[in-house]
Specification:
The protein has 255 residues and is an all-alpha fold. The protein folds into two domains: 207 residues, Up-down Bundle (Fumarate Reductase Cytochrome B subunit), CATH 1.20.950.20; 39 residues, no CATH class. 64% of the residues lie in helices and 2% in strands. It is built from ten helices and two strands. A hairpin with a 2-residue loop joins strand 1 and strand 2. Helix 3 runs antiparallel to helix 7. The longest helix has 31 residues. The protein is globular, with a radius of gyration of 24 Å. The termini are far apart.
Length: 255
């Protein structure tokens, strides 16, 4: 460890803790100060068609890729055993690459949308651009590593997962990472930076999962208006309607 460069010491033994500390500190503060504004600030209502073709492949791709990373982190020995059969290794590698490419297609589509749609461009902040750029670096570097350094699922489980576990155990040992190619180091460092800036960006919405919808009571919505008056979705009629809430159910008011 003493002979390893000081830059590696900072990037792989110090930066991860700075990023995680920043993540939790800013997240907790945001929930306490502005909980109801902690969202993705969606621009879907400004433009929906390109939004659909960007968000759908991006989300499906990134969820599978992140799930694969998590499984390799939690069960490295089992993953190496699974990959001992060449057929299973080929299927896993190809599947991971396909979903990574799907993520890239969706991300590029979202970037083009941000730049080309005037309404969306007007509500785009500098942090949006920084986040999109870092995500692009993360996805491209991951695909590069998978293509240039094959059998990524195996060497990730054998070399990167043990390093990550040393971080969890507060005893970082980055000797295996120091010998890695620059692209692998870039992928790791950029991931730490993304975690650190996440609470400052639209990605904070991943922490706001609407799980109460899974167990809350059903809502029945009934509006009342004068008989024979057709419903017109204008502001005057909507504001004139007076729903009554009873036990999470909107009902007609008593006559």
């Amino acid at each position: 460890m003493a002979n390893l460069p000081s830059l590696d010491l900072f990037l792989f033994a110090v930066l991860p803790y700075i990023s995680v500390f920043t993540f939790f500190l800013v997240t907790i503060r945001a929930y306490r100060v502005r909980a109801f504004t902690y969202s993705s600030l969606s621009s879907q209502f400004l433009e929906n068609q390109q939004h659909f073709w960007g968000m759908v492949p991006f989300h499906y791709g990134i969820l599978v890729v992140l799930g694969g990373h998590l499984l390799a982190f939690l069960f490295p020995a089992q993953l190496i055993l699974f990959n001992s059969r060449p057929v299973r290794l080929y299927i896993l590698e190809v599947s991971a690459l396909i979903f990574a490419l799907l993520t890239l297609v969706g991300l590029v589509s979202l970037i083009v949308r941000r730049m080309s749609v005037s309404k969306v461009r007007k509500v785009t902040t500098q942090m949006d651009l920084v986040l999109l750029g870092m995500l692009l670096v993360q996805v491209v570097s991951g695909i590069y590593n998978a293509v240039v350094y094959p059998w990524v699922t195996s060497w990730f489980a054998a070399s990167v997962s043990p390093y990550l576990w040393t971080l969890v155990q507060l005893n970082p040992d980055y000797s295996s990472i120091a010998a890695m190619p620059w692209a692998v180091k870039l992928h790791l460092v950029n991931a730490f930076l993304v975690i650190g800036i996440m609470p400052y960006t639209r990605m904070a919405h991943v922490l706001v999962v609407p799980n109460p919808y899974l167990w809350r009571k059903y809502q029945v919505v009934r509006w009342y208006r004068a008989p024979g008056v057709p419903f017109q979705p204008n502001l005057e009629q909507v504001t004139a309607m007076k729903p009554v809430v009873t036990d999470s159910v909107l009902t007609e008011p008593p006559k």
